[in-house]
């Protein structure tokens, strides 16, 4: 019975949280005249001045001042699409998603070629749970700028939440094709492949993540979990130990290693990682998990102390 309980604990943690969409992109504004600033044309020099001031304030993180300046710019000249885009960015960064959607939509209405506006509109729509619309916005952004790895990544996140694994996998692969060092896309691809049942490809992808990100302990744990599922315990032990080396304070790595060693009949070896996991949970204030581990450790110690018949 003990072995079944321990095995069930291992199964519970064979999961990885999906990464959330990336932060809002900030377009680069190139120097220009008062009349022409990255495609911003206006006959109103005062509007151009307000716009330039908004860009300056935005670039140093003074969002309130930037928003005010952009508002003044569009009051003078309502045709400045990038001013609406920047106001959308400010609102998005402040969590005012519905208002941001309105500003990005206005920017796109004035200039449908603004790939960043479509992209950030997608983020705002995603945050509102409007997945179909978010997907459409990301796809429009990609159609304009096919070199934005983050747009493919966010597209994959939205498809994943719709449980559309095939499209999510394709989007993540496109993100990686544009930027092979996109670790988030690599990790989410591994998760989706695992859930699709393509285990060999998932293992290979987890391994790429661990190579790309030397500090990635969670990917190592996920790799170990999948290797356990595939009945490759020796490789799983290596993965868990590597996770511990990278992040000694990761309780799951110690916990899973201890459970796996126990399942292999290596009772004495199992105690050390389980005790370490318990100590970490205690330090984190997770008393319920620490108590659960104390029960497991005591049961293993009892088995070690019971003479074999």
From TrEMBL:
InterPro entries: Sel1-like, TPR-like_helical_dom_sf, TPR_rpt. TPR repeats lie at residues 47-80, 81-114, 115-148, 149-182, 183-216, 217-250, 251-284. It comes from the Bacteria. Keywords: TPR repeat. SUPFAM superfamilies: TPR-like. SMART domains: SEL1 (SM00671), TPR (SM00028). The keyword Ubl conjugation does not apply. Pfam families: TPR_11 (PF13414), TPR_16 (PF13432). PROSITE patterns: TPR (PS50005), TPR_REGION (PS50293). The keyword Translocase does not apply. This is Tetratricopeptide repeat protein. It comes from Floridaenema evergladense BLCC-F167.
């Amino acid at each position: 019975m003990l072995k079944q309980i321990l095995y069930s604990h291992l199964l519970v943690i064979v999961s990885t949280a999906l990464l959330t969409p990336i932060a809002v992109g900030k377009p680069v504004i190139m120097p220009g005249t008062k009349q022409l600033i990255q495609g911003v044309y206006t006959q109103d020099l005062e509007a151009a001045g307000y716009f330039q001031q908004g860009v300056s304030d935005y670039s140093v993180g003074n969002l309130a001042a930037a928003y005010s300046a952009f508002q003044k710019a569009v009051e003078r000249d309502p045709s400045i699409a990038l001013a609406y885009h920047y106001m959308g960015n400010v609102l998005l960064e402040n969590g005012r998603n519905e208002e941001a959607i309105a500003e990005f939509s206005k920017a796109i209405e004035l200039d449908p070629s603004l790939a960043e506006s479509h992209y950030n509109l997608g983020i705002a729509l995603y945050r509102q749970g409007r997945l179909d619309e978010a997907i459409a916005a990301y796809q429009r952004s990609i159609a304009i700028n096919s070199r934005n790895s983050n747009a493919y990544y966010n597209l994959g996140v939205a498809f994943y939440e719709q449980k559309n694994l095939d499209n999510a996998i394709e989007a993540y692969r496109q993100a990686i094709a544009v930027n092979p060092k996109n670790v988030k896309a690599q990790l989410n691809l591994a998760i989706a492949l695992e859930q699709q049942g393509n285990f060999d490809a998932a293992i290979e992808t987890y391994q790429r993540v661990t190579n790309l990100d030397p500090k990635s302990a969670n990917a190592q744990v996920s790799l170990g979990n999948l290797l356990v599922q595939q009945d490759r315990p020796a490789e799983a032990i290596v993965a868990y130990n590597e996770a511990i080396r990278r992040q000694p304070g990761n309780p799951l790595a110690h916990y899973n290693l201890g459970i796996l060693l126990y399942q292999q009949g290596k009772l004495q070896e199992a105690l050390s990682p389980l005790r370490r996991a318990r100590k970490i949970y205690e330090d984190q204030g997770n008393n319920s998990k620490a108590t659960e581990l104390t029960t497991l450790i005591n049961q293993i110690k009892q088995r070690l102390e019971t003479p074999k018949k």
